[in-house]
Write a structure and sequence with these properties.
Largest sheet of chain A: 7 strands, mixed
Structural class of chain B: mainly beta
Strand content of chain A: over 45%
Radius of gyration of chain A: 14 Å
Radius of gyration of chain B: 13 Å
Oligomer: heterodimer
Structural class of chain A: mainly beta
Order of helices and strands of chain B: EEEEEEEEEEE
C-alpha cells in the first residue's frame, strides 16, 4: 500500500516569498492533516480536513497560511509571505478510524528553510 | 500544562538494556494512545498503539497504559543502537476527533 506522498521534499526561499506544498494521502483515508514540526518539538497541528471540509484550523496563521483539499483527496498548503520563523518541516498525514482508535500515518515531510 | 508531556531526555542506555519512556496526558477523555519513532531528519513512524489498561507487547516493544494515572509508557527490551531516535507519544480524544503529540524523548543506545 502506498504511503502518504509529499512534494517538494526540500525548499529554500527568501523571506516574503511564497511556497506551496502538495500532499496525496493514503488511499481511502478520509482525514488529512498538515503539521508543522520545529526542531526539538513535537508535531503541531496546523489544519485537519475530514474529506474536503475543515475540522480544525485553530492553529493555522491565517494571515499567511492557507490550505485546501479539493475533491477530498489531494491537499495543498501555501505560505505567503514567508517569515524566518516558518523554517520547519511540514508534515502531511492521513488517518483512518476504527471505533475509537484513530491511527495517523505521516508522509516524509517537506523541509522549508526561509533565509 | 501541556496536554501530552514527555521527558525530553536525552535518555541514554547501554546496548542490551531496557529503555523506559514515559508519557502523561491531561485530557481524561483520551481513549487511544500511540508511540511513534522519529529518526533524525525523518518523519514519525508508528510503532504501536494501545487503548486498554495494561500491557501490550509487540516484539521488543511493550506499551503500558494506566488510565487512572493518565500515564503511558513504552519499554524497549534488548535495546540496540538502531533504536536511537526520538520517541513521540500521542493521545487521541474520540469526542473531539483530535490527536495531540508530545515533544518527544530522545533515546541514545550506546554500543
Amino acid at each position: 500500500e502506498a504511503g502518504v506522498a509529499q512534494s517538494p521534499r526540500y525548499k529554500i526561499i527568501e523571506k516574503r516569498q511564497s511556497v506551496a506544498f502538495w500532499c496525496n494521502p493514503i488511499s481511502g483515508h478520509a482525514t488529512l492533516y498538515w503539521y508543522q514540526q520545529i526542531l526539538g518539538q513535537g508535531p503541531k497541528l496546523l489544519i485537519q480536513f475530514q474529506n474536503n471540509g475543515v475540522v480544525d484550523d485553530s492553529q493555522l496563521p491565517k494571515d499567511r497560511f492557507s490550505a485546501e483539499r479539493l475533491k477530498g483527496v489531494d491537499s495543498t498548503l501555501k505560505i505567503q509571505p514567508a517569515k524566518l520563523e516558518d523554517s520547519a518541516v511540514y508534515l502531511c498525514a492521513s488517518s483512518f478510524k476504527q471505533g475509537f482508535v484513530n491511527t495517523i500515518y505521516f508522509g516524509e515531510g517537506s523541509w522549508l528553510t526561509v533565509v | 500544562q501541556k496536554e501530552v508531556e514527555q521527558n525530553s531526555g536525552p535518555l541514554s542506555v547501554p546496548e542490551g538494556a531496557i529503555a523506559s519512556l514515559n508519557c502523561t496526558y491531561s485530557d481524561r477523555v483520551s481513549q487511544s494512545f500511540f508511540w511513534y519513532r522519529q529518526y533524525s531528519g525523518k518523519s514519525p513512524e508508528l510503532i504501536m498503539s494501545i487503548y486498554s489498561n495494561g500491557d501490550k507487547e509487540d516484539g521488543r516493544f511493550t506499551a503500558q497504559l494506566n488510565k487512572a494515572s493518565q500515564y503511558v509508557s513504552l519499554l524497549i527490551r534488548d535495546s540496540q543502537p538502531s533504536d536511537s531516535a526520538t520517541y513521540l507519544c500521542a493521545a487521541y480524544n474520540t469526542n473531539a476527533g483530535k490527536s495531540t503529540f508530545g515533544d518527544g524523548t530522545t533515546l541514545t543506545v550506546k554500543p
